[in-house]
Amino acid sequence: MAVRTYLQAISDGLREEMRADERVFVMGEDVGAFGGAFKVTDGLLDEFGPARVRDTPIAEAGIVGTAVGAALAGLRPVCEMQFADFVACGFDQLVNVAGKMHYRLGLAVPMTVRLPVGGGFSGGPFHSQNPEAWFMHAPGLKVVAPSTPEDAKGLLSAAIRDPNPVLFLEHKHLYRRVRGEVADGAPPTPLTARVARAGSDLTVIAYGAMVHTALEATTPEALGGASVEVLDLRSLVPLDEAAIVASVAKTSKVVVVDEANATCAAGAQVAALIAERAFEQLDGPVVRVAAPDVPIPFSPPLEQAVLPGTARIQEAVRELLDY
Amino acid sequence: MESLDRDAGELLTDDDRVGLLRHMLLMRAVEERGLSLYKQGKVPGSFYDGRGQEAISVGATWALAAGDPVCSPLIRDLGAHLVKGTDLTQVFRHYMGRDNEISRGREGNVHFGDRRVGVVGMVSMLPDMMVVAVGLAMAFAMRGERRCALSFFGDGATSRGDWHEAMNWAGLDRLPAIFVMENNQLAYSTPAARQFARNPVERAAAYGVHATTVDGNDVEAVFAAAHDARERALAGAGPTLIEAQTMRMHGHGAHDDARYVDPALLEEWSGRDPIDAYAAKLGKAGVDVAALRAEVQETVAAASAEALRAPMPDPASATTGVFRDGEPDADQLGAGVERWSGFLRLPAAAAA
Amino acid sequence: MSSSTTEPATAAATVDVVMPALGTSIAEGTLVEWKVAVGGPVEADAVLCEVSTDKVDSEVPAPCAGVLAEIVVEPGETVEVGTVIARIAAADGSAPSAAPELRRSDHGDGRQIDTAPDRRRWSPVVRRIAAEHGVDLTAVAGSGRGGRVTKRDVLAHLAGGGAQAPAAAEPDERPLHSESPYRPEPAPATEPAPERAPASAPGAAAPPSELGGAQQQLSRMRRAIGTAMRNSLSVAATCTTIVECDMSRVERRRRELGLTALPLVARATIETLRDFPDLNATLDGDTITRYERVHLGIAVSLGDDGLIVPVIHDAQELSPEGLGRRIREIAARARASALRPDEVRGATFTITNPGAHGALIATPVIDVPQVAILDLEAIVRRPVVVTGADGEEAIAIRPMVNLCLSWDHRALDGVCAARFLTALRRRLEGEGRGAG
Prior knowledge:
- The structure holds three protein chains of three kinds.
- Chain A is an alpha/beta fold.
- Chain A contains eleven helices and 14 strands.
- In chain A, strand 10, helix 7 and strand 11 form a beta-alpha-beta unit.
- The longest helix of chain A is centred in the N-terminal third of the chain and has 15 residues.
- Chain A is globular and about 60 Å long.
- The termini of chain A are far apart.
- Chain B is an alpha/beta fold.
- Helix content of chain B is 40%, strand content 10%.
- Chain B has a five-stranded parallel beta sheet, sandwiched between helices.
- The radius of gyration of chain B is 19 Å and the shape is globular.
- Chain C is α+β, with helices and mostly antiparallel strands.
- In chain C, the strands form five sheets. In chain C, strands 9, 12, 15, 16, 17, 18 and 19 form a seven-stranded mixed beta sheet that branches. In chain C, strands 1-8-6-3 form a four-stranded antiparallel beta sheet, with no helix packed on it.
- In chain C, helix 1 packs parallel to helix 2, helix 5 packs across helix 6 and helix 5 crosses helix 7.
- Chain C is elongated.
- The two termini of chain C are 75 Å apart.
- Classes of the chains: A alpha/beta, B alpha/beta, C alpha+beta.
- At the A-B interface, helix 3 and helix 4 of A face helix 5 and helix 6 of B.
């Protein structure tokens, strides 16, 4: 056991999987010699060599498409989009080639796409996105979003070992800000939700960086003694419906949080699921907190106004507790 | 631009030649039968054929070893499926949307590929599969395997960004890929003159990709070009772009009567039909072409009749198989039938 | 993909030939020419006819060998894709067998949507728990916003038989409960939240004395009121309709007559009830009794002791002045506990007027077996849009009041209630006959 940052945990996970399985290789822009824009792949080139740690041209369609080909040939590519925002350039290959391949032709595509997501550091409109909803909507793609170092490592292992295309959302804001205990050689994390804090009066459902914001916003001290449960989804596809319904049954009040733009975000799917499957458990409306439908702005006061923070989550929670 | 004027004579035996003609005849017969079924209302959706282009997919695929996947044949390339060994009955069942082993009703017309014989099916976005072929080639190179990947695409597909990314990537790393561009002069109704300012073959060198042009209606010339490209790839000299010049004789699909095509052009090219020319040539050399045609017709009729007896897929199966459960088979992308006699003739070490 | 024109199953002897779909957007085709005559021999795949569509002309090959038995569509006719255009009597063994139909698996869930007939605003979980445990929710006091019964309330009711679970401490300053949903904050209260009763008890049992509370038993009157309110709410299908009314004319008139507004409103109400007999009625079980005479109940507050509703029988005979005198008189006797028993019975309609206390809207409880009650709340000077004689609109300051009518949906519908209130409003505002 060691205390690692979220970023270190991802590196550790990559390294362990590459050591254990020679089919696993990494590719992306600046991942090799430079060690990656965020240094996640730092040191891998030295250990594994240029065949397994490949610097690519700026070609997201190329990165995703060749990953599909390599996966069909029996390798386990872990490709990186330098910023999640750039996945849009590889959207066609991901959705139309990778996602539909098994359904149409019975060919499994065991590939992983790492996506550094999220804002909060003045990255502006093209370096701050949370694009998970686009891919939750595309059949054949799995989507995971860890919030802790332990889960970052565990879910990366799970993604790499999964015989299907998996999008791994690593939140840039958490890279160096979150630390936690991470075991060596731990088994992969299952694609299920986890209760980040148990509670009885109300549930906040979140994933990624918003789990931490939600925990901070809903301490008993902050809410005059109210007991708020925080459910960390961890996996968006598949979505842990049972855990969601169980938590709502327990508290009967739920606030769903997305850092992403509100319309059709992951939280919208969660809210619809709750309305359909947990209606009889509800003691109040399903409340959502999400970014408004705007590109993420650059200047700090604007960005803070857009990204959900503890204040907005607290306000929504108080309102609903009060209902 | 290098014009290949090679005599494939020393590469092909008589058996090869008969095999090439037979597979072109098979492709023609399957597509004629398919078109007839389509007009009888037995084929859902649309129907596409590669009439007049049979020499390209048959000739190029003939040069591939068992472990060289085709990724992917396009709508004029039924010959590639057949040369690789795809079962005819399954093809008809697939066309008619019946339950089948290749697509299970989830795909239609020429959007298919029997992975068991090393064919990856196409997607509609062209030339996406060219990038995937580059990925396969990359994997072969990484593992030090003597294998290459072949991708077909048309003149129109070269306009999309994926073509550039594939060419650049393959050329940069000298990957063992073969790119066959079927220049049949039309992308639906758009003539090549409205598709690109400079022929892609002229641009290939700029990517570090070797390029060559052949008569796409000469099956032996196409074979020779593909054979050379494969040798080059396995020698580490990188990818080759083969332009096979031909003419699309039918509309884009059965629903298109191609009234925008100059009839004189069609007239000229119908005199250059790849099958007619080759059948005449082999007939003169003593091959019983009539018997061959009859056998092909019988085979196709039997396959289509059997396919007509197949059931439609079970609607309950519509939502299964989106994800794979469990480790994929190591040979999920299998080996195709090895056709070229050269693979048998040469010593094992030098053979593919 | 366009819809398939896959050939339907037919008997082996006769094979249908259909108009093919030559393209995904083609819906119909025109028959151009038959190449075979009826009775003529047909070879499999030989051309039977020529058809024409918007996109392409094409030949239709025969699906089997045999004899052309029947031509269904003639040259020049245009038919939809899939239409039978001819029939072939198939030669033995040449008819293509039909694709065997697969039995469709039944995926119908047939999920029922639970439509509870109850109209009150209890949340799904509260209703579910109540149903599971046979709890009468009208007997459960609510600690949620606006007196809402929360899940915690009903669970506490089950656990402690009325003991209220401690509410989560609220850090903000808004009052949690109130007689009406009106809040002291600037936002205008426009939504009438359904209220159990205008004078309902807060419902909180006295906290244990360790917390410093003082215990007291409810008085007999308070208990009687409570019982009556609960009974009314459990028996009647109580709804409330509200109409805003401009009291300018009433204000002028009452000053002239030296009265309060109540007798003027009472008089207008009596006259309007003449036109709406459904509201001047009592409902007993399934029997509704409509009255020509108006026995008007007037709610009188007895301060902390509660309220009482003495009845002015045959109020229709009294003028506004007369009504004013009677109201003053019975109120005085009510407060002196000097009312006779027959003076608190037999009302056909009730008016309550707590407006002096400042509330803007309320949802009164019907004094069953009557079917309606009118609540007059505070008259407040407001800016309103008025239309001048020249047709131009302007803002004017007017004394406005909300006429709140609670009514029993078992006896009448919202349309009736709304029309009554509108007619009352018109009367009070001076349209048609004057007020009083």
